[in-house]
Amino acid sequence: MLEKMIVVGAGHAWRKFYRQTVTNLEIELLGTVDPAVEDGNADGGWHVRTVQDIPQDAIANDVVVMVLTPDHYPVIAELAGRGFKNILCEKPLVSRASEIEKLEELVKTHELKLYAIDFYLPKMFGLQVALGLVKRGDLRRGWVAVSNPEADGQAMLGEIEGVGVQVLEAGDFCLPDIASRPYLANDKEIGGMVLDLITHACGPLHQARLLENWQVLNASLARLSTVTSGHLVPVADTSTEVEMYVTALLEANGVPVHLVFGKVPIATGGLWALEIRGKKGMFFTGLRTGQPAVLVGNDGKVVTFLLKMTTYEFVVREALLYFNGLLPGFDGNYGAFLTSIKVGQAILAKYGER
């Protein structure tokens, strides 16, 4: 069993969110890698400044590497070059469109098993359970509390007639977040909401098989007039201006799919939600951590789905199951990432046609 870990990027995300999860799951931390952290040994094991400094005896098939650095693809490539095979990585897997094909080639050449972290995927795991995509033998099935485990979610929902996803970040998630990460609104290469938020919107739909045979029918893009106190204005030049608010209408297997995602300069609030309209019922979930999903039949019957653990625990546990070969047919969210990026590129292209 793979229960040994190396962490690359021992900064804020590691200290505030992941370190306690790794400890709680009794994963052996071999060491940490971070040029900016001096006290890495406080986590146990060794601490080095670069991937090249990782001890040779730590490179083994039973070791998992967690990548929490700001820029991911160069680190993944360096780890692959050292011989590591099992890598879980914070979103986004790549920060530049030019790295997508490079990543695909890297995975193929080095036979990597990548696990792409996106916390909207565990938040939406109840949908996969409701649609019967998580079978009873799946080790993750017990991770979701279902109010009526015997209910037939597919029958309650019926034929799907429409899907909508909204990921709108206001309040502290907008201007204050941009102040700490100005590249989001200023850098055309690594900024923009397609790279930052598209997997939030499309990843869960891919995992629920709701993005098959898709095409983009319409798209609109807006940017911030200023990144300190601005308002939204239409994007005029997609080659230079950075999109911060995106709406798109897709068709997938003949079903309309409406996406809205981005950062909006409003003082408070936001909206994180997914809704599915079926002929016989509705499925709704707030994509905020800790909120349940609800399936309501036209006859008034209700089934709720609630994650039993934190999203951090979910992704680490799921990644370990994946790396240990205990989730047949699961690809570590790699397909969800690739589909999301392709949808995002198609949205940008559609808007560019106007």
UniProtKB/TrEMBL annotation:
Signal peptide boundaries = none
* Gene3D superfamilies, alphabetized: NAD(P)-binding Rossmann-like Domain
Q: Which residues cross the membrane?
A: none
- An example molecular function term from Gene Ontology annotations: nucleotide binding
Query: Which Pfam families would you find in this protein's record?
Result: GFO_IDH_MocA
Classify the source by domain of life: Bacteria
| Coiled coil region boundaries | none
Which stretches make up the Gfo/Idh/MocA-like oxidoreductase N-terminal domain? 5-114
Task: Please report the name of this protein according to its UniProt entry.
Answer: Gfo/Idh/MocA-like oxidoreductase N-terminal domain-containing protein
**What is the originating organism of this protein?**
Candidatus Sungbacteria bacterium RIFCSPLOWO2_01_FULL_54_21
